[in-house]
Each structure stands twice: as C-alpha cells, then as structure tokens.
C-alpha cells in the first residue's frame, strides 16, 4: 500500500445549454478539470534510476461510469523507467499534443468550456486534450529539462492487426522551451485513421501546432495555431488566443477565442469563452464558465451534443465545484 | 493517499432456491449487506466548511463483476460541500427513499432476504434499497440534525436528452424524526418513467412512504407503509412490519412480513422472512436467513430470478459471511 | 484504509510475432507476469481465526482495459475465513489447477511465452494459468501445510441457471508435497462445458495432471504431464519439461518444451521457449523471451492470435519490464 498513491479529481457543474431551437438544463462532469481516479507509484532502483507506473480512470461523476464507457483505465495505463536520460513508458498514454493543448497553450485548459478543445475535437484533430489525444499500444519518451528545453516523442502501434497493420498507427513529437515568463512549443502528429474493419491502404493525417505564452504577472497571454492535413477529411487550420488573469490570491479569470478555418466550402466555426475560478483551498475550487460557438452554413460544430444544427449557434453556461485528492 | 479512504464489504452466502417446479443451489453475493468497494475523502476548508467526495462500486463477489454490469461506480459517485447549512452533493446518488427503506424501516435492512425490498422492487417502486432507488445527474441536500429532525431533498435531471427532456426526471424528499428509542419518517418520490427511446409525454409516478420504529431494548419494532400511483403500471400499496431482537452481545434475530396490495385483479403478493446474524467482530458477521413469497393467481413476484410462476410460491434459504473493510 | 492493501504488477513488452505468411510488431501486456491491480485485507478475529478478502482486476496495460473486457475483478473476487483448519473462501477464484500450472510446474510460469500454457489453453484444458483456470460461484478449501503436504479442493456451481443446472459446473482438487528441493503434485478437474444457451445434458470433461520439480541449486528441473478426456473435443495429452537456471544474484534463465498429443488425426503440436529475466530490484525486472510453436497438418495452435494457419509455425519474441507494487 505504501507503494501506491491514490489520486484524482471530482468535478461537477450545473449547466444550461441552448441551441437554435432547443435548450436543456444539465448536471455534468468535468467543467474545470476532467473527473478521474488513479493509482500511481515509483520505486527507487538506485543509481538515479526509477521504475514508475500509472493507472487512471476517466469518470463521469453524474452517472458513475467511465469515460468512455467500457474501458477501466481509459485515460492512462503505463509502466516505465526514469533516469538521467529522461522517462520511457509503454502502454496507453496521453500524446505529446495532448499535454501541449491541455496544459500549455489553452487559457481554459481543456474541457467542455474550452473553445480550442471544442473546435479541435469536432474538427477531427488529435492534437487535442480529449480521447483522440491518447494512443494505445504506445511507447513514449520524455526528456529531462535541458536548460529550458523539453522533448517528447511517442510511437503508437495502433490496433495491432494482421488484417491492416496501419490501422490506428500514431507518431508524434514535441519540443518546448520554457524560461521565466516565456514558453514556446511545437508539436507534430502523424496518424493513420484507417481501421481493421475498413482497411484502406492510406489514410494518413498530419498535424502541426505551435504555441506560445508569456506571463506578464498581471495576466498571462496564450496563443496557438494548428493545422490538419488529412487524406479523408477536409484540411483545416485552427488558431486560438486567450488570457489568464489572476484576481486576488484565490481567483482566476480565463478568456479564450478560437477559430476553425476549413478548406471545405462554408465550413468555418468560431468559439469564445469566459471563465472564473476561485480556490477554496489548494485542492478545492468553485467556478463559473460560459462558452459559445457559431458556424458557417455547411457545418454544425457545437458546445453541447444534440443541440448542433448547420449554421447554428450554441451556448453552454455552468457553475460548479472541482475537488482534487 | 492520505486524502482517500478505501472501504467496502464482501458478502457471500450459499443458498438454496425453490419454486413450484424447479430448485437450485446457488452461491450469491450480498445476503446481509450489499458487496461493494469504494473510495471517499473529505477536506477541511476552514470556517466549518468541508469538501467531500465518494465513488462506490457494487460488486457481485461470485463473478467479480459490477452490479449492474457496465457501470464502474454503479452505487454512488458524487462531490459536494458540507457546512453548518447541511450537505449539498451532485452526481449519481442514493435517493431519500433508498436510505429510508434500507437503514430505517426495514427489519432485514434490504437485500435478497428482505420482504419489503423484494415486493417494492418487483412492484416497480423507487422507494426501495435497490438500483431504482438511485438517480443519475442529481443534486441532493441533507440537513443537519435539527433537534431530532433531518430533512433530505433530491432532484435528478434524468437522461438529459433533448429528444425527451422529461425522461427519467426525479424529485424526492424525506423528513425524519429520531429521538431516543423512537423514529418516524415520511418520504415522497415523483419520477418520470418515460425514456428517450419511448418519448411519451406524461409517465409520472408518485410514491409516498411512512415508517416508524421503536426500540424496546429487548426488541426493535419496525413498520412502514408505502403507495405507488403511476400512469403506466397499476397502483399499489405495500406495508411491512418487522422486529429486530438482540441475542446476547453478538447476535441479532430479524423477522419481517410485507404485503403488496395491487389495484390490478388477482395481483397481490406476500413475503415473510426470518434471519439470524452473529458478529465475530465489529467488521465480520456470519448469518443464516430464509425468505418466502407467495402470489395471487395473476402475478409472479418471487424471491429468486427464474423461479417465478404466476400464483406460485418461492423460497430462498441461505447462510453466509459478511466482512466489512 | 489501514484495512486494505493495494497490490499488483504492471508488465509490458515490445514484441515481434511471425507466422507463415504474416508478421507484426506489437506492444503487449504481461510477458513475464500478468498485469493486474488488486485490493486485499485480513482481520484478526481472535483464537487463530481470520477473515480475509481479495478483489483483483486483470489489466491490459497496452489499452487500459480489463482482461477479459467487461468484468471489473476478472481475476479474483472472494471472501472467507482462515484458521487452524485451513482457508475456506467463496467467490470467483483461481482453481487448484491454475496454481499448479502457474507457480509450481511451469519453468516459464505462464503467460504468452509459456509453451505449456499456450498448448493447454488452445487444447481446451482448464488445468491452465489463464481464464479457463478460474471458476465463478465457487467455494475453495486450502489446507494448512501438513508436514509438506498441502491439499486444495474447489467446487463451482457454474452458471446457476434453472434452464441447465449443469452449465459450467466445476470440481477440482490437488495434493502437493514439497520438502526441501523436491516438489511433487497431482491435480484433478472435472467440468461441464455445456452452457445455458446450448443445454446438452452431458458435456463432462475430465483432466488430470502430475507435476514434479527438483532444485539442484545450479538449476531447477521441472516437468508435468496432463490429460484431457472430454465428451465434445478430442482427448489430449500434454507433457512439459523445463529448467530454471539462476545466473548471478539477479538473473534467471528459463527453458521450456511442451508437446500436445491429440487423439484426433494429424493434430499434435509442439512448443518451446527460452527466456532470461534480470531483477533490477525485488519489485522490478527486465526480461527477454522467445517462444515458437509448430503443428501437424490438421491443427493451428499458435503463439500469437491471428497468425495461426493449419500446420504452420509461429514465433513470438519480446523484451520488456515487469514492475510489482
């Protein structure tokens, strides 16, 4: 037991979602941070070497189920070694793009109230802090901090099928530089979106993202730009700008704007959000957030499932609590 | 890890079930208490305020699966705040009626050997200590103890569907008074039994229950009466009387009788049970229990799945162990 | 929390699988030991009596899912009592044959690189250290150590169906003698392979196994012989010989050979493996292993799913890490 630490977060909000013709009151999970429970541990092997593991379930607090249903440790499941060379792990893991888009270059830090997350996920991107930003059967390398530079590289074997050996294959790498108030980063993903069921030879998708942030103390300015170049879906460009503003010792305002520019006709979307969070302690925060998305006539990206109509505008407003443990 | 407590119970019994034409020997889970494993924690936020969470899986010890299958934290999954005002939580939760029917006014305290549980569950009631006594997407309020009075109120948003926004909606409230040997309580549930798949406008079901218990020291007398008034199923009335008798320092005898009076023709049922439990310690008990149910000719409520025949009598006898942790 | 210990193992390897016409690179779970996470606890009841429980999930580290999918505590889920008389437990449990074939008489100790495990599992045997070596709804007795002798006996009620009460019923017993360098054992299984869906009256399968090992210090010699006598599948005989050779303080070489001799025409198979494991600590090991299987013309047992062809040879080579906690 002393070898294992239990950790996680429980996040619930009451929300109101409004589309063109319908609206709905909801209680939902994960408005500020993904709800989850996990187990992790490390072992000191001597000579600076460590073994480590992590098992983490995504939880829909509102129903008690996993996110997505059917997989126990749906977020992270890996084992590996850490040393002076960095960290090598194998299993199901967040991709380099997941971390970039969640922690570094999104003022809202992911979830249902993040404009860049909403548009990246619905634009078919894998540089995103949702499920498509994870990879099964993958090996990941994280470098140590080299004078501000950190490198991550991941290779995922996909579905490991003898029928279509390309199905789901993934490769990604990121390089980030952080020094004092400045952080700049670049990430690249290449994945094969073919499946065992539909063995098409070549369905490669390439994605790039650059991000930068600068902390002016009174506010932190954040921006990112990412592209998708696929052989199935239309190509797309997504840019995102936001600020995080400390308010007193415990408060934080988040503002974000993102725009998706699709190569397809009349298929652009825009989303913008405003949030406030207030820490009751290091572990517990209250928050209130609102996000809206609007679309060109041929596309229906939305901020709430079931409310999307082509060309329509959707809004989600919510207030809740996040408790970490 | 110091933030999280692991708790639960493992309960298994060997049983023999007999119907009109068939019988079966079984090993089953949860004869005295529901088998489960959970994680909970609290955080002191100062000024009498606390954050709290709970995640709890129902376990079928005999197969290792969850009860029901497919949901990880199928029993409880919530986060909330506690203070002088009481406790407010959001998530998947036991209803006010669940607690009343399990802990307060059932001599057998739920499970497969409880007459009132067997008849309430098969009578379509939600004031019951089984799955239908829980609600997804719900907010619950529990008052502090006001001179013996405690109030609970819950509102559940149901399936949160834009197709049928009433599907599964739930509201319930209870008021209980406990003072020395006496406890009396009342609970009300209103739920919409329509679903997304079958969007019928109005399928409201209303339930009331009153319960009372008095502890004479040599025995505790327990009784309850509950009604169901639905727009789909036939209306029903269920009454229940029982005693709990301490035997020495470690033993306890439980006797229960329940009768379901349906508005439908020839559809009444009766069930009666006798149990004995013996504590080996605070955490571990052995038990032996027997329950029987009989029916009018047009109905087939039973004490074991797969043995029911209209008008038939079924019996379940079992002996087992419950270990809490 | 002090009542519960969290334990488990995370094991991942990168491997290369080759069949007659196809090959595949894989990242897989459990090359040295099954990946798993569990919770167990004991309570001292006085007079030498203890209550105990265990809940254990099999984990596919590469995807984060359970093995098999859909069951939370798919490996072990039981509660029971331990005393001078031995240990009696009830739930889902490893059979006497599971323990024999995994821990005592297999030089590779199970998993995808074990010749005897590969051939026993694909030969339809239940004396095997995989899923078919476990039983739902079962009671197990393990004796104390009687001067080197230990006895295990298990009875499993199967699917507990009123439609076909024989479906899945299981009985097994083992007797082992271990004294100094010598260990010899015998195990017997009888199971009914009929199901509720296909209620055939009599589908009994009988299996016997004898095993022996002798530790010469410079190497440990291990051998086993087991038979299957079924009413549906062809009868079979499986023998297995192996050695475990300590190399220095931290290393261990494992060599195994197994041959399946089927009563069906042209249906024999052979498998052989070589492994090396190196302990970085008590809890963490690196390993490299290779296994191959070949077949007579009418049968297609393989060492990797999806590569089997009748009469074909398959090879799996892998290197990985196992971290226990």
Salient structural properties:
homotrimer, 18 strands, 325 residues, Porin
Please tell me about this protein's structure:
The structure is a homotrimer of 325-residue chains. In chain A, strands 1-3-4-6-7-8-9-10-11-12-13-14-15-16-17-18 form a 16-stranded antiparallel beta barrel. Chain A contains 2 helices and 18 strands. Chain A is globular, with a radius of gyration of 20 Å. In chain A, a hairpin with a 4-residue loop joins β1 and β2. Chain A has one domain: Porin, CATH 2.40.160. The longest helix of chain A is centred in the N-terminal third of the chain and has 9 residues. Chain A is mainly beta. Helices cover 5% and strands 56% of the residues of chain A. The two termini of chain A are 17 Å apart. Chains in contact: A-B, A-C, B-C. The interface between A and B is large, with 40 and 39 residues.
């Amino acid at each position: 037991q002393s070898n294992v630490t239990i950790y996680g977060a429980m996040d619930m909000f009451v929300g109101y979602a409004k589309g063109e013709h319908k609206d709905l009151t909801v209680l939902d999970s994960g408005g500020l941070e993904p709800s989850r429970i996990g187990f992790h541990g490390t072992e000191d092997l001597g000579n600076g070497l460590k073994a480590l593991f992590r098992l983490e379930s995504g939880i829909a607090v509102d129903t008690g189920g996993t996110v997505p249903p059917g997989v126990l440790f749906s977020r992270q499941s890996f084992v590996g070694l850490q040393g002076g060379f960095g960290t090598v792990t194998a299993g199901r893991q967040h991709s380099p793009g997941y971390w970039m888009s969640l922690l570094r270059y999104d003022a809202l830090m992911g979830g249902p109230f993040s404009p860049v997350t909403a548009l990246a996920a619905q634009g078919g991107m894998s540089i995103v802090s949702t499920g498509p930003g994870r990879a099964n059967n993958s090996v990941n390398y994280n470098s140590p901090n080299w004078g501000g530079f950190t490198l991550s590289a991941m290779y995922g074997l996909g579905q490991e099928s003898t029928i279509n050996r390309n199905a789901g294959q993934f490769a990604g790498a990121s390089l980030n530089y952080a020094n004092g108030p400045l952080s700049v980063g670049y990430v690249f993903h290449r994945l094969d979106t073919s499946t065992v069921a539909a063995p098409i030879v070549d369905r490669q998708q390439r994605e790039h993202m650059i991000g930068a942030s600068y902390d002016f103390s009174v506010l932190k300015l954040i921006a990112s730009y990412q592209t998708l170049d696929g052989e199935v879906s239309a190509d797309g460009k997504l840019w995102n700008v936001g600020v995080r503003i400390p308010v007193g010792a415990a408060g934080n305002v988040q503002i974000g704007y993102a725009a998706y520019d699709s190569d397809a006709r009349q298929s652009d979307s825009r989303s913008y959000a405003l949030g406030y969070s207030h820490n009751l302690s290091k572990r517990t925060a209250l928050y209130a957030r609102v996000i809206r998305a609007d679309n060109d006539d041929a596309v229906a990206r939305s901020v709430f499932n079931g409310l999307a109509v082509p060309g329509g505008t959707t809004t989600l407003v919510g207030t809740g609590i996040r408790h970490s443990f």
